[in-house]
């Protein structure tokens, strides 16, 4: 049975271990986090050894669909955070009960090591000669409204979504049309 965390240093019974919070932060899946919080609440919080999760009961309070609940449970089991016990007394309906893994502190360290930081490519600014060539190509007019005031160079596919500085991905827009477009792809 999951014994819970170390006792709080003061009378604050809402205290949660920072190691547990570190674990939740290291996870990338909201369903997995909600599943773990549900199991902690219903086991440690209620002094039960394990909990049975039913789709109907769980979807109402969490806003998750049944497929995302199943995905969250599978991810938590793959990470070794949940232990599964099966009740096979009724052969027609096998019940699965879940409990928090006892060695979750070690698993936290393992998950943090496995998690790779996302690589952000440095943005290279456009050269003035490149800006001038794009404006010349577009005849110093906005490609949307044909205005010639407050012209800017815009990425058709934004850099944040994988766009490049190639001529085919650049266009001339006025300030108003560029702000209106935002980071949408066109």
Main sheet: strand order: 1-3-2
Overall 3D form: elongated
Q: Give the fraction of residues assigned to helices.
A: 25-40%
Judged by helices, strands and strand pairing, the structural class is alpha+beta
Mean pLDDT: 76
Helix count equals: 7
The H-and-E topology, N to C, reads as HHEHHEEHHEEH
Number of domains: 2
Note poorly predicted spans: none
User: What is the CATH architecture term of the largest domain?
Assistant: Orthogonal Bundle
Largest sheet: 3 strands, antiparallel
CATH class of the largest domain: Mainly Alpha
CATH homolog superfamily of the largest domain: Winged helix-like DNA-binding domain superfamily/Winged helix DNA-binding domain
CATH topology of the largest domain: Arc Repressor Mutant, subunit A
Number of strands: 5
Cα-atom radius of gyration: 26 Å
Strand share of the residues? 5-15%
Note the gap between the termini.
55 Å
Tell me briefly what this model is.
The chain is an alpha+beta fold and 186 residues long. The protein has seven helices and five strands, in the order ααβααββααββα.
Description:
The chain is α+β, with helices and mostly antiparallel strands and 186 residues long. It has two domains: 18-114, Winged helix-like DNA-binding domain superfamily/Winged helix DNA-binding domain (Arc Repressor Mutant, subunit A, Orthogonal Bundle); 128-181, no CATH class. The chain has helices spanning 18-26, 30-43, 55-62, 66-78, 104-114, 128-137, 175-181, and strands at 51-52, 82-87, 95-100, 151-155, 170-174. A three-stranded antiparallel beta sheet has the order 1-3-2. β2 (82-87) and β3 form a beta hairpin. α1 (18-26) runs parallel beside α5 and α2 packs across α4 (66-78). The termini are far apart.
């Amino acid at each position: 049975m999951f014994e819970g965390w170390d006792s709080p240093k003061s009378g604050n019974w809402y205290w949660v271990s920072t190691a547990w919070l570190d674990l939740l932060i290291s996870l990338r899946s909201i369903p997995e986090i909600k599943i773990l919080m549900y199991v902690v609440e219903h086991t440690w919080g209620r002094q039960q050894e394990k909990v049975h999760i039913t789709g109907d009961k769980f979807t109402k309070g969490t806003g998750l669909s049944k497929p995302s609940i199943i995905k969250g449970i599978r991810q938590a089991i793959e990470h070794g955070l949940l232990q599964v016990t099966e009740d096979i007394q009724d052969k027609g309906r096998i019940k699965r009960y879940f409990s928090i893994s006892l060695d979750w502190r070690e698993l936290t360290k393992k998950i943090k090591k496995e998690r790779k930081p996302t690589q952000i490519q440095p943005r290279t600014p456009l050269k003035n000669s490149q800006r001038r060539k794009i404006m010349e190509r577009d005849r110093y007019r906005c490609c949307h409204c044909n205005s010639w005031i407050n012209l800017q160079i815009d990425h058709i596919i934004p850099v944040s979504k994988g766009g490049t500085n190639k001529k085919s991905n650049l266009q001339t827009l006025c300030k108003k049309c560029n702000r209106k477009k935002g980071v949408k792809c066109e």
